Amino acid sequence: MPSIIKCLSYTLPSNVYTNEDYYSNFPDVKSVNMEKIGVKQRHVITQGQTASDLAQLAAEKLFLEHSIDRNMIDFLIVSILEHDYYTPSTACVLHGKLGLQKKCGALDFDLGCSAYVYGLGLADGVMKSMGAKNVLLLTTSVLTKTFHPKDRNSHFVFGDAGTATLLTLSEKENLGPFVFGTDGSGFEKIIIRDGGTRNPLDKNSENELKDEFGNITSNANFAMDGIGVFNFSLKTVPTMIEELLTKASLTQNDIDLFVFHQPNKFLNETLRKKMNIPEPKFVHCLENTGNTVAGTIPIALYESIANGRLKPGMTVVLAGFGVGLSWAATIARF
Amino acid sequence: MEDISTFINKIEIEIDGLEVGTLKPSTNYRELPEWSSMHALVLIALSETEYSVPLSGDDLRKCGTIQELYNLISSRS
Fold first, then answer.
1. CA distance linking residue A101 with residue B61, whole number of Å
2. What CATH topology corresponds to A177-333?
3. Is the peptide bond before A27 cis (omega within 30 degrees of 0)?
C-alpha cells in the first residue's frame, strides 16, 4: 500500500548558543567571514541529556501536537549516531519509554545527513513489505558533544535536535520514487577517528591536530574536510536530483518546493544557483537551529508548513547528503 | 572567459569584507590576512557557478596568485 508523511514535530534543547556566545568563545574569528553560513543561533544539548532523550521529547510532542494515539504505531525507526548503550538498540529503549505496543517492530540505523530520506525509504519499505500501517520515524543528533573545544568551524555550524515523523497508509502513492547512493571511499571526509573498535581511544587520541586554515580538532573529536565535502555536494547533488526526476518522469517545473539537507546556507545557495532552481522554490532553514544533521529536512518541512510555504497538494523534492559519504533523495506529495 | 579584472571584481564582491581594489593579479590569496576556509569555499563556488569549472583543495594549494588561479580556470572553461 502507498504511504504518506502524515505529520511531523521536532524539539530543540533549551540551551541556546548564540553568535554572541560563539564570538566571545572564539574572539579571533571575524564575523564577516561567517555570515554566509547563515546561522544566528543553535541549540546545544545540556549536560546529562542524551540523543534518545531528544528523540523521546520529539515523539511525545508529535503525539500531543497532532492528537496521535501511540497505540496505533506498529513500527518504530530511529536514526541515531549517539546510542545510549553499546547494546541494546536505542529504538528498543525508546519503545519502552514511549509505551508503544508490544507488536510494534523497532530498529536503529546510523547515517547522518542523508538519514531522513533513508528513514522515509525504510518506513515506506516496512509498510509495503510487512504490512505496517503507522510508522514512527525519529531522528536525533547531539553532534555538538563530539566537538573539540577549539574547533571554531563545527561550533558555529552545528546544533542539536530531535524530530518525529508519522507515516501512514494512503490511497495513492505520495512518497517516492527514491534514489540512494554511497561513496565509501570518502568515509574519512567526515569522521570521528578514535573511540570505535578500529581505533580505540589511547594516549594520543586527544592530541590537537591543526588543519591548513588553523582549525583545531583531535582524533577523539569530530573532524570534517570542509572543502572535500563542499565539492562532493556540488558534484553529487545535481546528478542525484536529475536521476530522481528522470525516475519520476517529472521535470524541475513540476516541483513546487525543494527541501534539501541544510549543511550551511552558502553551500545550498551554490547548489541552487548551479541547478537554476528559482529562489521561491528553495527552502533555507537553519538560521535558528544550525545544521542539525538528520534533523534538518523534517525541521525545514515543519517550518515550511507552519509559515504557509508548504501547502497541501504540493510536490516536494527532499534530498539528504553528507557523512558516509552517503546521499538519498525522494519526492513527497503533501 | 572574461578578462582578469572582471574575474577579480567578482571575487571582491563575493568575499564579504574585502575592499574593492585589494586584489591584484600578483596577489597571493593564501597570504591575505583574512584568508580562511570560507574564502576557499567562495572561490570554489565562484568557479563552479560562473564558469562551470570544479576546483579542488589541491588546485587552490597549487595556485600561488590570483593570476595563476585565473589561468587554471581559463584553461578548463
1. 57
2. Peroxisomal Thiolase; Chain A, domain 1 (3.40.47)
3. no
Q: Which of A91, A98, A61 is nearest to A77 (CA)?
A: A91
Q: Does A309 have pLDDT greater than 80? A: yes
* pTM for the model: 0.95
| Interface residue A210 vs chain B (CB under 8 A) | no
Q: Which of A215, A231, A266 sits opposite B56 (nearest CB)?
A: A231
User: Do residues A42 and A271 make contact, with C-beta atoms less than 8 angstroms apart?
Assistant: no
Residue in the structure block whose three cell numbers are 545527513: A113
Q: Candidates 3.40.190.10, 3.40.50.10090, 3.40.47.10, 3.40.50.300; correct CATH number of A3-173?
A: 3.40.47.10
ipTM for this prediction: 0.91
- Test B34 with A231 for CB contact under 8 angstroms: no
Q: Which of residues 6-65 of B touch A (CB under 8 A)?
A: 16-17, 34-42, 44-45, 48-49, 54-57, 60-61
Taking the Cβ of residue A34 and every Cβ of chain B, the question of whether any pair is shorter than 8 Å is answered with yes
Cβ within 8 Å, pair B41-A226? yes
pLDDT category at A2 given cuts 50, 70, 90 is: confident
Confidence bin at A31 (pLDDT 50/70/90): confident
- CATH number for the segment(s) B4-16+24-76: 1.10.1200
**B77 — pLDDT class (breaks 50, 70, 90):** confident
